[in-house]
Amino acid sequence: MKSRIAHSAVPTFKYKVTRYLLEKEVVMNWSTLNKCILMLFLGSLMHVIWAIWKSVVLLTPELWRWVNLALLKQQLVINLFGLFVFIGMIGICHYFRKQDWTRRYMPYIAVATFVVSLCRDGYLVGVLSPATMVTYISLPTVGLVLFERRIVYSALIPATLYLVSCGYLSFFGQLTYAPLFLLTDFPYKNGFWVLSMLFFIVPILLTCLVLFEILLSQWRYREALIAHLSQVDPLTNTFNRRSINQCLEQLNHKQAPSYAVILVDLDHFKQINDEHGHHKGDEALVQVCHVLAGHIREQDVLGRFGGEEFILVLKQATAHQAKQVAERCRQAITQIELYDEHNQPIHFTASFGIALSHHNTPYEKLLSQADQALYQAKAYGRNQVVLYQPLEPAAS
């Protein structure tokens, strides 16, 4: 039979891989240097895109009347130089990642270099152009997700002052606005200028959207993993006590039909830990979990309720059905094959206490009744199944 547990008692290969990806491969969990390498790689792509645009303009004489050719050639060389600078910084981050100075200073240097290159080209195409504005809004937002605030603001504040100063001086004619273009008319009437703005905007916008999507998706996965880990027992990977209580509370709230609660406690479990070590005790708990999971229905719930105590919640079950399930589980536990380091068998048993809900019995009371039945099973010599029976009032 299948059981309704969070995952199998022993995590599957797929679960291990998923957990590794969520915990280790989340971009936000990368080291600061790895994030720097990602940012420098994206910066290299930006220089490649700018170089491509300038090369196309230089190879298209029809467009020369719209641009400052001398400045364009100069900036093409600067873009190629910037590309090699970014590649070199990637190499420094990679090959000197274990050096303390690299971890301490390279994030500031890399972010500053990245922002300076964007500000320089932002001035060339116009500080108030759509390309510059999209870059200014998008990249700091992503940066604040990836890096510590002091790293981002150490570059963002000077960049803001620079762009504001350029805009102010351009407005009063002290600086040429968008010196890369020869704008003799309102820029939005210049089709070449508009298309150029789109060429600069689209790669930056798509890059930021992809990063946002990756970060958001991984954030959601990590939140889901945290929620999962808060609901399960880390050893057996079954529901923990908190999740079981929530399940019972929901059954009470929905006024579900009669259901049974079975408490399972391993007999003399401390002896296994004392004589064979805690690793063998853990192995015993995992195998018991396998056995219990294999003898209940998919609709039923299995959880670890304490150290060596488990709980079964059998939905829509009668007292007879509950006793049958408990008895099958009891017998199966006695047949578990567990061996010590000398390959000698380790035998152990379990006691079972059963309580049945009646007329929307509060789950706290039901747990108390199951615990009383379990205590009776222990008192009867252990390795027993006991159904809670309410005491009949004494005759007067």
Task: Furnish the topology, listing elements before pairings.
Elements: H1 13-24, H2 32-58, H3 69-95, H4 100-125, H5 130-146, H6 149-171, H7 191-229, H8 241-253, E1 260-266, H9 269-276, H10 278-293, E2 301-304, E3 309-314, H11 319-334, E4 350-356, H12 363-379, E5 385-387
Parallel strand pairs: 4-5
Antiparallel strand pairs: 1-3, 1-4, 2-3
Helix pairs in contact: 2-3, 2-4, 2-7, 3-4, 4-6, 5-7, 9-10
Task: Please characterize this protein's 3D structure.
It is an enzyme of class 2 (transferase). It comes from Acinetobacter indicus CIP 110367. This protein has a 5-stranded mixed beta sheet with strand order 2-3-1-4-5, with helices on both faces. About 30% of the residues are buried. With about 400 residues, it is α+β, with helices and mostly antiparallel strands. It has helices at about 15-25, 30-60, 70-95, 100-125, 130-145, 150-170, 190-230, 240-255, 270-275, 280-295, 320-335, 365-380; strands spanning about 260-265, 300-305, 310-315, 350-355, 385. It has 12 helices and 5 strands. Helix content is about 60%, strand content about 5%. The chain is elongated and about 100 Å long. It has 2 domains: about 30-230, no CATH class; about 240-385, 2-Layer Sandwich (Alpha-Beta Plaits), CATH 3.30.70.270. The longest helix is centred in the middle third of the chain and has 39 residues, at about 190-230.
